[in-house]
Amino acid sequence: MPRGEKPYELAEASGLARLRIAAGLTQAAAAEAIGMSKHSLGNVERGSAPVSDEKLGRMAEVYGVGLEKVARAYRATRMERLQGMVKDARRAR
């Protein structure tokens, strides 16, 4: 586990964060290597912000995995986020 990461974070991590952690990178190190801020990467990992195809490609390079794997993880994270928003809206009615 990367230095500075808390043990519980892997269990709670999104697919993108799991790929980053498996690559041995902290969020700060990954963000710098990808060319985005740590804050932006955190938003992407939580599914609360979109990311460009260029950045997804850079994530694949930095994490040492295929682009398809990164894209699947990103789509799954966004879908989970959207489903959560729908559930919250239904509860608020």
List the helices and strands and how they pair.
Layout: H1 7-12, H2 15-22, H3 27-34, H4 38-46, H5 53-63, H6 67-92
Total number of beta strands: 0
Please mark out the parts with pLDDT under 50 across 5 or more consecutive residues, or reply none: none
**Integer-rounded radius of gyration:** 14 Å
Assess the beta-strand content as a share of residues.
Answer: under 5%
| Strand-pairing-aware structural class | mainly alpha
CATH architecture: Orthogonal Bundle
Can you describe what's shown?
It is a single chain. The chain is mainly alpha-helical and 93 residues long. It has a single domain, classed as lambda repressor-like DNA-binding domains (434 Repressor (Amino-terminal Domain)). Helices cover 73% and strands 0% of the residues. The chain has six helices and no strands. The model has no long low-confidence stretch (mean pLDDT 87).
In short:
By secondary structure, this protein is mainly α. 73% of the residues lie in helices and 0% in strands.
